[in-house]
Specification:
It is a single chain. The chain is α/β, with parallel strands linked by helices. It has helices at residues 16-24, 44-54, 75-96, 128-143, 163-173, 190-202, 205-210, 225-233, 264-270, 277-286; strands at residues 7-11, 30-34, 58-61, 99-105, 147-152, 155-156, 176-180, 184-185, 188-189, 213-216, 223-224, 240-244. The strands form four sheets. The protein has a six-stranded parallel beta sheet, with helices on both faces. Strand 4 (99-105), helix 4 (128-143) and strand 5 form a beta-alpha-beta unit. The chain starts with 6 loop residues before the first strand and ends in a 12-residue tail after the last helix. Bound molecules: NADP nicotinamide-adenine-dinucleotide phosphate. The site of NADP nicotinamide-adenine-dinucleotide phosphate has 25 residues, from helix 1 and strand 4.
Length: 298
C-alpha cells in the first residue's frame, strides 16, 4: 500500500484525539500539530493563512467545541468552531489540494432508533452541540473538498476531560456512584480512533479520494453509561455503582437515548474494523502512558 509522505496538519493538538493523532500519524509524514494558540478555529483568516503556509497534503481536524452542556448557552461559540470553521478548512483544503479528515458525533441523531444508525439515517440533533456538528458536516459536503467525515461517539482516554477519568476520580472519593442507564452508545478510546485514522491515511491519497465522504467510525458492541462505569470500576466492592434514569440526572443539554453507529460502510470501503469497546477499554487501562507530549508547531 502506498504512503504519500507529505505534511499532515493536525488541529486541536492538545485535545484527547488530537494528541493521539499527532503521535499516530507521525510515521506517515511530517506532522504539524497546532493547538488553539497556533490556530484558533474561530479565526477564519488564521485558518486560511496556516493552511497556505503549511501547504499540507492532509488536514486532520480534531479541534472542536466539545462542552456539550455549555454549548446550550454558548451557541455562537459552538457554531463558530464546529459549523463555520470546518467549512473554511474545507475550502482551504480544496484550494491547496489537501484532503480533509474531520470528526463528527452520534449526537447528530435524536436517539429514537433502536438499531444502529448508518450514514443514510436522517440526523435530528437534540442539542446545540449536535446541531453545530451537523452544520459542520454539511459545510464540508457543500464545499466540494475531498474529505472524510468520521462520526464517532463517547471518546475517552488517559488525558483531558472524559468519562473514564471522571469515574476514576469519583471512585476514589465516594462509596456509591449513581450512573445513567437509559442512554445507549459506544465508548471509543482516543488512541484507537487515532490508529484507525492512521490506517485510513496509510491507504494513500488516491485511494482515500476515491472513497471520500461520510463514515461511521466506532468500536463494536454497545453499552450504557452505567455499563461503561461498571466496566471502569471492574470487580471492586467499592464504590457501588447504581443505575439511574436520565431524569434523575438533569443536564442543560438533552442527550439521545440511543447512539450506536453502524460501521459497515467503513469496513466495505477501507477494510477497517475496530474491536469491541471492552477490548479497547482494557487496552487503554493497561497502556503505560499516553504518547509523549509533542511541541505543537504554529
Ligand atoms: N469527546 C467526545 O465524547 C466525542 C464524541 C463524539 C465525537 N467527538 C468529536 O471528536 C473530535 C475530537 O474530540 P475530543 O474528544 O478530542 O475533544 P477535546 O478533548 O475537547 O479536544 C478538542 C480540542 O479542540 C480545541 N479547541 C476548542 N476550540 C478551539 C478553537 N477555537 N480553536 C482551536 N482549537 C480549539 C480544544 O482546545 P482547548 O483545550 O484550548 O479548549 C481541545 O484541545 C471532535 O470533532 C468531537 O466533536 C467527541
Amino acid at each position: 500500500m502506498s504512503v504519500d509522505r507529505g505534511t499532515i496538519l493536525v488541529t486541536g493538538a492538545r485535545g484527547q484525539l488530537g494528541a493521539e493523532l499527532a503521535a499516530a500519524l507521525s510515521p506517515l509524514g511530517h506532522v504539524v500539530a497546532v493547538d488553539r494558540a497556533g490556530l484558533d478555529l474561530a479565526d477564519a483568516d488564521a485558518i486560511v493563512r496556516v493552511v497556505r503556509d503549511v501547504a499540507p497534503a492532509w488536514i486532520v481536524n480534531a479541534a472542536a467545541y466539545t462542552a456539550v452542556d455549555r454549548a446550550e448557552s454558548e451557541r455562537e461559540r459552538a457554531f463558530a468552531v464546529n459549523a463555520s470553521a470546518p467549512g473554511v478548512l474545507a475550502a482551504a483544503a480544496k484550494r491547496h489540494g489537501a484532503i480533509l479528515v474531520h470528526y463528527s458525533t452520534d449526537y447528530v441523531f435524536d436517539g429514537s432508533q433502536r438499531t444502529p444508525y448508518d450514514e443514510t439515517s436522517v440526523p435530528n440533533p437534540l442539542n446545540v452541540y449536535g446541531a453545530s456538528k451537523l452544520e459542520g458536516e454539511r459545510a464540508i459536503a457543500a464545499s466540494g473538498a475531498v474529505a472524510l467525515t468520521l462520526r464517532t461517539s463517547w471518546v475517552y482516554g488517559l488525558r483531558g476531560s472524559n468519562f473514564l477519568l471522571t469515574i476514576r476520580r469519583l471512585a476514589a472519593e465516594r462509596d456509591e456512584l449513581r450512573i445513567v442507564d437509559d442512554q445507549i452508545g459506544v465508548p471509543n478510546w482516543s488512541r484507537a480512533l487515532a490508529e484507525a485514522t492512521a490506517a485510513l491515511l496509510r491507504q494513500g491519497r488516491g485511494f482515500v479520494a476515491e472513497r471520500a465522504g461520510l463514515y461511521h467510525l466506532s468500536a463494536a458492541g454497545e453499552t450504557t453509561w452505567y455499563g461503561f462505569a461498571r466496566a471502569i470500576v471492574g470487580g471492586a466492592d467499592k464504590p457501588r455503582v447504581l443505575p439511574i434514569v436520565s431524569a434523575e440526572f438533569p443536564t442543560p443539554a438533552a442527550r439521545p437515548a440511543y447512539g450506536v453507529l453502524a460501521t459497515a460502510r467503513l469496513r466495505q470501503a477501507f477494510g477497517l474494523e475496530m474491536p469491541d469497546w471492552r477490548a479497547a477499554l482494557a487496552a487503554c487501562i493497561a497502556s503505560p502512558a499516553e504518547p509523549p507530549a509533542r511541541n505543537p508547531v504554529a
